[in-house]
Amino acid sequence: MHCEGLLFFIKASTAQKGASKDVALKDNTNEMINKHVLQAKPDKLWTSFNQICCNIQAIFEHYGINSSDLNMQQLLQMVGKYKHEDKVQIQVMRDKSGDIAGNVENELTVRLESRMGVKFKTCRNESEIEPTKPLLVLCVAGTRIGSDATYSIQDIAREYYRNTALLIIHNKEEHSLPVKSSSDVLTDQKFEDLGGIFDFGYSKDMGIYGCKMNNRSFDDLTLFITRHAAEKG
């Protein structure tokens, strides 16, 4: 369900107020869609109109509901219930405080919140890590990926490794991304003990852009989180 689905709910709430108002509402909504969605930059969509649509879709999937069977009042009640449920909490930790790590963390959390309905907690050091909850460690890769990856997890206790996913961020255009996955390169036992190693391509202009590597990593990271959600339940 995308823009059309949200338009359905907005129109449904005023369906009893007359056709002329409904037409005006449709025109105003289409104007909003054009202004805030169609003209928005791709990296802004997740934090604007598209995020709303994804959240509503997540609620429907969570409760197994058909949108045609729900009116606006029921939708609002469902949103309230969904917001207060005990969701899976994902911890995030990054090895550097620079713009790249910060931007990647922000984009990842927004997209995964929209995609999976999870919530996030930023850990500044090991003392803030909860060992039973999944942990995403962001590593901005430089010229020596082995050293960078080791530095990223050096302060994390070994008993936390199973619940830890190491996200290797490649600050490169798609044509310059490495051919081999980081999991094939990082073969020391400490990396083998991690819950997963996932590669993401990133650029300043496009953020985490669409490509084969990123699509696969998002799918694999979703499975990593889903496994922990199943264990939680």
Largest sheet, described in full? 5 strands, parallel
The number of helical elements comes to 9
Strand content: 5-15%
According to CATH, the fold-level topology of the largest domain is: Rossmann fold
**Helical proportion?**
40-55%
Q: What's the CATH C level of the largest domain?
A: Alpha Beta
| CATH hierarchy: architecture of the largest domain | 3-Layer(aba) Sandwich
Give the overall shape. globular
Q: Superfamily at the CATH H level of the largest domain?
A: Flavodoxin domain
N-to-C terminal Cα separation, in Å?
27 Å
Instruction: Tell me, rounded to a whole number, the average pLDDT.
Output: 75
Number of strands: 5
Structural class: alpha/beta
Task: Report strand order across the widest sheet.
Answer: 2-1-3-4-5
Topology as a string of helices (H) and strands (E): HHHHEHEEHEHHEH
Low-pLDDT parts are 1-27, 32-51
Query: What Rg do the Cα atoms give?
Result: 21 Å
Number of domains: 2
Highlighted features:
Rossmann fold; 2 domains; five-stranded parallel sheet; 233 residues; disordered N terminus; globular; alpha/beta
Describe the structure.
- The chain is α/β, with parallel strands linked by helices and 233 residues long.
- It has 2 domains: 3-83, no CATH class; 89-232, Rossmann fold, CATH 3.40.50.
- Helices cover 48% and strands 13% of the residues.
- The protein has 9 helices and 5 strands; from the N terminus they run H-H-H-H-E-H-E-E-H-E-H-H-E-H.
- The protein has helices spanning 3-12, 19-38, 49-63, 72-83, 99-116, 145-153, 182-185, 189-192, 212-232, and strands at 89-94, 119-122, 135-140, 164-171, 196-202.
- A 5-stranded parallel sheet has the order 2-1-3-4-5, sandwiched between helices.
- Helix 1 (3-12) runs antiparallel to helix 2 (19-38) and helix 3 (49-63) crosses helix 5.
- The longest helix has 21 residues, at 212-232.
- The chain is globular and about 55 Å long.
- The model is unreliable at 1-27 and 32-51 (pLDDT under 50).
